[in-house]
Design brief:
The chain has 348 residues and is an alpha/beta fold. Helices cover 43% and strands 15% of the residues.
Length: 348
């Protein structure tokens, strides 16, 4: 027969109120906490989370809505988020939006029906309207990787525009002027990285033909087809900036099938590592995002909200800088990416 809270009372000599306070996360004297934990271990007592949830109005479940789960970037973030939540005594409930804003809206409603305590969202859409039911319900929210302009919802992300600017600047510093981009104007992160590319070209007064700007979805197919098209141009680019991991995979596949060589014929720099740097020859120069820090920071923000009993997002205190996530105030946390040198850029 399963142990009960009364069994713990008999073994410890403590009151039911004290034991209940411990089980619900309250503060106790160290000696009482030690007695209860010892009794729980000896009795093999298991907390009835459903019953406790009825008392505390907590499910101990955090909803995680992702734009696309069939994505190495997303899977890596989910792994790190899960580690954070488990340590804090929460379980993640993951919903895949499949890059579909309508499904994203359904996912938020589904998680609300499951009484999740909070949500972390990597959005597929570009407006915050789909999150309004969660805000109306007073559910703490944190955006991750992609901010939603004007939403006032806390977000943890990297500075995509500045990082892309630095990547294209590296190509410029190596003497390249015919610089193409394979990127996206459909995803939020893609638009920000495109802005960095265009900003560098504008500041350096470099004019590139429209054929050098290949925009579509962040996908292997887009990277593959776009690189093929770039290499077939009468005057192909001497360097290509690739906007994300999937694009890099497709672009490198197309280059490997062509008579062109990297970096002697075309130099490459890409956004996101995720194993590819160890598989390509020559080793690619890449912009690397701090994925663990992104996940740790987002989880930290949400868990703090839950500890404080916040019923709505804050989003009032903006932040931009390079301090460690533990030091950052709530609001928008912009973390720095870094360029990891490879051998894929030649001087011209």
């Amino acid at each position: 027969m399963a142990a009960t809270i009364k069994d713990i009372k008999e073994l410890t000599g403590l009151s039911l109120a004290t034991i209940s306070k411990y089980l619900n996360g309250g503060n106790l004297r160290p000696e009482n906490r030690a007695k209860i934990e010892k009794a729980i271990s000896e009795l093999h007592y298991e907390v009835n989370e459903m019953a406790r949830g009825l008392v505390t109005s907590r499910s101990k479940v955090i909803g995680v809505v992702v734009f696309d789960i069939a994505n190495v970037f997303t899977c890596t973030l989910l792994k790190y988020l899960g580690e954070n939540f488990r340590r804090a005594g929460y379980a993640p409930m993951i919903c895949d939006s499949q890059n579909d804003p309508e499904l994203e809206t359904e996912n938020v409603r589904f998680l609300l029906s499951k009484k999740v305590d909070g949500m972390i969202v990597i959005p597929a859409g570009q407006t915050a309207a789909f999150l309004q039911p969660a805000r109306n319900a007073g559910i703490p929210l944190v955006l991750m990787d992609r901010s939603l302009k004007g939403s006032g919802i806390d977000c943890v992300k990297v500075n995509n525009t500045a990082s892309s600017y630095q990547a294209v600047e590296k190509l410029y510093d190596y003497g390249h002027r015919r610089i193409a981009i394979i990127g996206s104007d459909l995803e939020i992160t893609g638009k920000e990285r495109l802005d960095g590319y265009l900003k560098l070209l504008e500041e350096k007064k470099i004019s590139v033909p429209p054929q050098y700007i290949k925009l579509g979805h962040h996908s292997i197919e887009h990277g593959y087809k776009s690189m093929q098209e770039l290499l077939k141009l009468e005057e192909p680019p001497t360097a290509v900036f690739m906007g994300n991991f999937e694009i890099i995979l497709g672009a490198v596949m197309a280059l490997n099938e062509s008579p062109f060589e990297c970096p002697s014929d075309v130099s490459l720099i890409g956004f996101d590592d995720l194993i590819i740097s160890n598989l390509s020859n020559p080793r690619l120069t890449l912009v690397v995002q701090p994925l663990r820090e992104l996940a740790d920071s987002a989880a930290e923000l949400l868990l703090k909200k839950l500890e404080k009993g916040e019923s709505q997002d804050n989003g009032k205190n903006g932040f931009s800088g390079e301090e460690s996530s533990a030091e950052l105030p709530e609001g928008e946390r912009i973390l720095p990416a870094r360029i990891v040198e490879g051998e894929s850029i030649a001087r011209v």
